[in-house]
Amino acid sequence: MELLANLSLGFQTAVSPENLLYCLLGALIGTLIGVLPGIGPVQTIAILMPTTFALPPVSALIMLAGIYYGAQYGGSTTSILVNVPGEASSVITCLDGHQMARQGKAGVALSVAALSSFVAGSFATVVLAVLAVPLSEFAFKFGPEEYFSLMVFGLIGSVVLASGSMIKAVGMIVLGLLLGMVGTDITSGAHRFVFGIPELADGIGFVSLAMGLFGICDIITSLEKKEKRDILKSKLTGFWLSKKDLKTAAPAVIRGTLCGSLLGILPGGGAILSSFTAYMLEKKSSREPESFGKGNLRGVAAPESANNAAAQTSFVPLLTLGIPPNVVLAMMAGAMMIHGIQPGPRVITNNPALFWGVIVSMWVGNVILVLLNLPLVGIWVRLLSIPYRLLYPAILLFCCIGLYSVNNNTFDIHLTALCGLLGYIFSKLECEPAPLILGFILGPMMEENLRRALLLSRGDPSVFFTRPLSLAFLLMAAAMLVVVALPSIRRKREDAFKEA
Amino acid sequence: MRITDPKDAYAGLLFVLFGAAAMIFSIKYTIGTAAKMGPGYFPFVLGAVLCAIGSVVGLKSLFRSKEAEKGPSLDWKPVALVLSSVVLFGLFLRPLGLLVSTILMIVVASAASHEFRLKEALVNAGALAFIVLMIFVYFLDFQVPVWPSFLLTRA
Predict the structure, then answer these.
(1) Residues B95 and B148 in one domain
(2) Could you give the angle at the alpha carbon of A308 between the alpha carbons of A304 and A312, nearest 5°?
(3) Is A257 left (phi over 0), alpha (psi -120 to 50) or beta?
(4) Does residue B1 fall inside a structural domain?
(5) Can you give the residue range of the structural domain that contains B21?
(6) Dihedrals φ, ψ of A237, to 5°?
(7) Mean pLDDT per 10-residue run, chain A (500 residues)?
(8) B49 in a structural domain
(9) Using the beta-carbon criterion (under 8 Å), do A396 and B105 form an inter-chain contact?
């Protein structure tokens, strides 16, 4: 019954006219930007983050969450209509979704994607609400040793489940941790890596780093490709699903939702892995696996429900333990910190209205998206026909104005350009920026917990191995590394990401 | 011995450089002991780890039997123009105001595309300058100089 009381508190917060407006606004702008090809949730959040800074924390987080799943919806729309996934988690939707669009069933594909996302999102919101209280109570028992080991586990997990070279990804984490050190040391007050630049005393701005590495860098790399996009010109009709469609899709939605909810909680899991796993599961368990990739309805329903469920449940580790399980959530963590809220178990007790308000607003946002997106799909499609050469300068401009508005100075603009250059170099060297952002967010927390743990043990590092829970986290991290390094599994992992 | 994967070799080098720089600067801050860490302790350890990882990444690229891969292909135009449009906007926003810097930025940024047409870019710049003026200055009441400062001082 406590759950119901909490949820009703959340409802009061989420459906206040003001917050409802921000939720709607976030969902709409998120979709708008997310629809643009090549711009997924991470880029969208990076670009739009400054717009939320003037709002009170609850409204800002509600709007950011809205931007997040709005962008995800937008991403699947482009996957289906243009075969250009907004981001990795909707890559898999392209396979069957775009085939359906080619067969003239774009409307059905879009409806199934929207409805399965909605069902999955609603279920995952309940999962989040149920798990939040016990998990955060559990987290209160953690000492600094457990926290440190948990962060090691989280960081390693995010690497193992990502694509690309693992050792480079670990290097990017360490580099991110180092970048997180820039600024004033909390304990001693000493300036580190500031080089006499007063603007750096507060550390590298998260918005600059994120916008440079994702927003600006992605614009540069897509300009290099010099490609022309082919846009589906066929008319969009037939959004209504037949009974048969519903019957076909339903079991896939249920399987996808369960799969996504589970994988979303794991570090590094999130939307990408879960949509891929759900698709594979669906294909393997199907009586006619050869129909996948040729416009099978279940090939849209399963990954779309899985990625939305995972997107929602990946808030669990962030809001209860303070550990962002993937980049998007690292962005959310960065935004929370800018608003002066330290993500972690304390949020739920110190700030229950914010916590439950955000959770309920996710569900409200999903309702808004289903109601609005299908009617508005025509506008989104028209947006796609704006040539990229007119679009990207506008995106850059809005980025710059947003950056200036954060602190009313131009330093952040130049820092972003520098981060963009760094991001470009990384992309050329095939080093993924996502682990760097995770490291950047966790760096100061990791240092603080390491310091406290070793202070208590008088410099004896064995505490990390003698406290059972801490040992368990470290063992799990080691096990993940070993398992992925095994040749047979490594090959499978590479195949898996290639197929995706 | 030859470099079979230039991307890994450069990535390794980059890691080692960052790691070494972190270590060198950390020594200047107090390092302290494990029980009583100074501000230099954690960055120093991280720098050392990054150096180690960088060396492994770099060395692996030297001793690999697979066929040599091509190095990263570079196209200077998009990077240089996009980044300089951002920097120009930052440099000119205060002295020349929002309108001039917007137009300058859009034109420079547009030139990065292989489909660049000056006339179109100018029209786009004018339209965006108008939109920005409407949204940010009149609607959101955004505190930013709009006109060049030399015009204002004369008047």
Answers:
(1) yes
(2) 170
(3) alpha
(4) no
(5) 6-62
(6) -140, 175
(7) 81 86 90 77 83 86 87 81 70 81 82 88 88 85 89 83 77 94 85 87 88 88 72 62 80 88 76 78 82 83 87 87 85 88 87 88 86 79 80 89 85 94 91 88 90 89 89 90 71 56
(8) yes
(9) yes
Each residue's pLDDT tens digit, B107-155: 999 999 888 889 999 999 999 999 988 888 887 777 788 888 777 665 4
Report the domain count for chain B: 2
Query: What are the structural domain ranges in chain A?
Result: 2-499
State the CB neighbour count (10 A cutoff) for residue A374: 17
In a domain, B131, yes or no: yes
Q: How far is A396 from chain B (nearest CA, A)?
A: 7
pTM of the model: 0.85
Any idea what DSSP says for residue A457? T
Closest residue in A to B91 (Cα) is A410
Q: Between chains, do A451 and B87 touch, taking CB under 8 Å as contact? A: no
Same domain, B58 and B85: no
Which chain A residues are Cβ-neighbours of B39 within 8 angstroms? 185, 187-188, 190, 192
Give residue-wise pLDDT tens across range B77-111. 889 999 999 999 999 988 888 999 999 999 999 99
Asked if B146 and B98 sit in the same domain, the reply is yes
Q: Please state, in angstroms and rounded to a whole number, the distance separating the CA atoms of residues A82 and B85.
A: 30
Is A360 in contact with A11 (CB distance < 8 Å)? yes
Shared domain for B80 and B146, answered yes or no, is: yes
B56 touches chain A (CB under 8 A): yes
Q: Is residue B140 part of a domain?
A: yes
- Residue A294, SS3 per DSSP: coil
Regarding whether B130 and B98 lie in a shared domain, the answer is: yes
Q: Say whether both B93 and B150 belong to one domain.
A: yes
